[in-house]
Structure formats: structure tokens, C-alpha cells
Design goal:
The chain has helices at residues 13-33, 48-58, 81-86, 96-112, 115-119, 234-245, 324-333, 337-348; strands at residues 123-124, 130-132, 135-137, 180-188, 192-199, 204-208, 214-231, 261-272, 276-279, 286-303, 315-320, 351-356, 365-367. By secondary structure, the protein is an alpha+beta fold. Helix content is 25%, strand content 26%. The strands form two sheets. Strands 4, 5, 6, 7, 8, 9, 10, 11, 12 and 13 form a ten-stranded mixed sheet that branches. Strands 1-3-2 form a three-stranded antiparallel sheet, with no helix packed on it.
């Protein structure tokens, strides 16, 4: 029984919020540190977003045995996230089924993440971006501090997706090009980094790459249009590099600068909260986003993170026809209708020449804080 005249104090709402935010981030970091074997499968609970994610990767069934598609891979292949990051050939040298399976625990943790608790979102009765299950919230792009109008410029801002370096013209044309904000959560050099990109309505992140990296993303609220490109195989890349710069059809195909590559369109699609998605060293490695009318927030986990030797490059994508001459010759020499159909399908594939550009002048991404998130790097 409380002492006469005293009162029972309610929990401090600020401390309660901080504890909730730390708990959400800590759970994700625990999965990034895990050393579970690839034969293990994440537990499926009743949460709709995690159940939808797990069914999508297992064809509607959960399993505790080693998937059939991993049986033929060498036992020397990595079996955990720490081993992935220590692999001598980098992530590019690891078969994609192994990559996907090792990353499943993190994907599951992202699917189970409580976006409301992490961002301290306020539910609204109508309008506003959706967090899933028909629930709408107040967007937070105008709550990230410092406000854009108070941001001090750095004349040395360069072309980088590292939002800790502000863009020198970030306050110019902000009405035409909404500023994307970045909230840093955690980083262990050469292992992983975590952060949240906050998109105002219709804000865009232009086409860029993630060299030798995997990126796992959870849409916390809102929706985005995404264009994804796959990098071509090494053999194709060598052919394109030589033909574009030195050789065949030089009177038709212009000469491109160093760093030019070739990519194949994977898809243009729409992401909605609470979706979880991933890209890999080749599959979907280049992408661009444009937020919907209510904006969006996306948590990214980068494995490994960008650094000085693994920097982000922005690109312009120029559609090109597949090597029609080779396709026509192969069709002429083919012996069966099946081979002809295959060549027709390949000749219709949309390919791009992707040319490095530097950071577009109308793209601005500035780091900031939301409550106690992003307060320390």
C-alpha cells in the first residue's frame, strides 16, 4: 500500500518508447549475429506478415529439413551469416540458394518487426500510409530532425549513398525533389549496417547499385514503385564491354565510359507494407524507388555495408536490343522448334546498358534522427 500522500507514478512514456525501440533493433541484431546451420528453419508464428513471407519462400509449407535445392552444394559452403561475410570469394562466389537460406532468419526477423513500436507511429482513422492489415498511420517524414530548412550545407558533399555526408544543394528545389531522410540504426564495419530511409510523398531514390552485397528490406509503412535490374553474367559483361568500346557495330553503338555495364530488367513492381524483399550480388542488384502519394519508410540491412572500396554508383539505364545478329544466326542454325522458341524468348529480353553518372543533382538524402533513433553512428 503506498505511503499516505504519495501517488503511484505512471511509467515514463519516453523511457517506455526508448525501451521498445531498443528491443526491436536488438532482436534484428541478434539474428545478424546468429550462427545457425542452414538446415534450420525459422519458426513460423501467427503474425500475418511473417506467415506470408515464410509461405512465399517455402511454397506454402514449412519444413525443418534441409531443402532439396541445397543438397548438391559443397559442404564447404557457408552455413551461417558470419561465415557468409568471411567467405574468401565474397558473396558473389556463393551460390544464390545458399545465400537465400542463410539469410532466412534475418528475413523472418524483419517480417516480425513491429513498425509501430520502432517508429512510434500514431494510428489515424483514415488517410495516411498503411502499415498493413488495413491500419493507417501518420507519416513521419516531417518529424525527422533536424528539419531540412535548418540543415547546414557541406560544400564537399559528393556522389554517395552514404547519408552521413549531406548534399550541398539539399535545400534547393525541395518542393520539386523531396528530400529523402536516413535514420541510422547500427553498423559493424565489413559486416552489416542497418538504417531507415524515410520517403516523403513521391520522393525518389535514383537507379544505383550494391557491389557484391545483399540488401534485405522491410517496408515499414507506405508503398513504393520499384524497378529492379539484374547484372549480367561475367561472360556477357566481357562481351558487352569489348563490343561497346572497341568492336562490333561501333558505327551504331556509341562508346561508353569506364564502369559501363549491362543489365537485364527483372521487373517493375510495387512494394507495400509490411513486405520483406531482398537483392543479391547479381539478382536485382540495381534498383530505383519512387514513393506513393502518402510516402513510405523502408528499413534496409546491408551485408556488407558500403565503404570506401565498396561505394555506391548511380546509373542511367539505356535500353538496348539483345544481340539480334547472334540470335538470328543461332535461329538459322537451330535444328528444333524448341531451340527456336528459346532464341525468340532470349531476343525479346529487355537489356540495358547502364552508364555511371555520379549522384543526380535533383536527388538529396540527408541523415537525421527520430526521437532516439539515429542519434549515434
Amino acid at each position: 500500500m503506498p505511503w499516505r500522500g504519495s501517488s503511484i507514478k505512471e511509467p515514463n512514456p519516453v523511457l517506455k518508447r526508448q525501451s521498445s525501440q531498443r528491443s526491436v533493433v536488438a532482436k534484428l541484431q541478434d539474428q545478424l549475429k546468429c550462427c545457425s546451420d542452414v538446415s534450420s528453419q525459422p519458426k513460423v508464428n501467427g503474425d500475418s506478415s511473417s506467415r506470408h513471407y515464410h509461405e512465399s519462400i517455402n511454397g506454402g509449407e514449412s519444413s525443418t529439413c534441409k531443402p532439396q535445392h541445397l543438397m548438391n552444394h559443397s559442404s564447404s559452403m557457408p552455413t551461417s551469416i558470419p561465415e557468409l561475410l568471411q567467405h574468401q570469394g565474397g558473396l558473389e562466389g556463393i551460390p544464390q540458394p545458399i545465400l537465400k537460406h542463410c539469410l532466412e532468419p534475418v528475413m523472418q526477423a524483419l517480417a516480425e518487426m513491429d513498425a509501430m513500436a520502432l517508429l512510434h507511429l500514431k494510428e489515424v482513422s483514415h488517410g495516411g500510409p498503411c502499415v498493413g492489415n488495413g491500419k493507417h498511420v501518420h507519416a513521419i517524414h516531417d518529424q525527422v530532425s533536424p528539419p531540412i530548412e535548418d540543415h547546414h550545407h557541406d560544400d564537399n558533399g559528393d556522389a554517395s549513398m552514404d547519408p552521413s555526408t549531406p548534399n550541398s544543394d539539399a535545400n534547393n528545389d525541395s518542393s520539386d525533389s523531396p528530400v529523402v531522410r536516413y535514420i541510422h540504426l547500427a553498423e559493424i564495419p565489413n559486416q552489416y549496417s542497418m538504417g531507415i530511409f524515410v520517403f516523403p510523398p513521391h520522393a525518389k531514390i535514383p537507379l544505383h547499385d550494391h557491389p557484391g552485397m545483399c540488401v534485405l528490406s522491410r517496408v515499414l509503412y507506405g508503398d513504393l514503385e520499384r524497378m529492379s535490374l539484374d547484372l549480367v553474367s561475367d561472360d556477357d559483361d566481357r562481351f558487352v564491354s569489348s563490343s561497346l568500346r572497341n568492336g562490333a557495330n561501333s558505327n551504331i553503338i556509341p562508346h561508353y565510359p569506364p564502369g559501363t555495364k549491362r543489365a537485364q530488367q527483372q521487373h517493375i513492381d510495387y512494394l507495400h507494407a509490411p513486405q520483406v524483399t531482398a537483392l543479391y550480388p547479381l539478382e536485382g542488384n540495381l534498383h530505383e524507388f519512387r514513393a506513393g502519394p502518402h510516402g513510405a519508410a523502408v528499413l534496409d540491412v546491408l551485408l556488407p555495408p558500403y565503404n570506401h572500396s565498396r561505394d555506391c554508383t548511380f546509373y542511367h539505364a539505356h535500353p538496348v536490343a539483345r544481340n539480334q545478329t547472334n540470335a538470328a544466326n543461332a535461329r538459322h542454325l537451330s535444328d528444333t522448334e524448341e531451340e527456336e522458341d528459346k532464341m525468340d524468348e532470349e531476343s525479346e529480353t529487355l537489356y540495358y546498358v547502364i552508364v555511371p553518372t555520379g549522384q543526380p543533382e535533383d536527388f538529396h538524402c540527408i541523415s537525421g534522427c527520430l526521437n532516439d533513433l539515429g542519434s549515434a553512428r
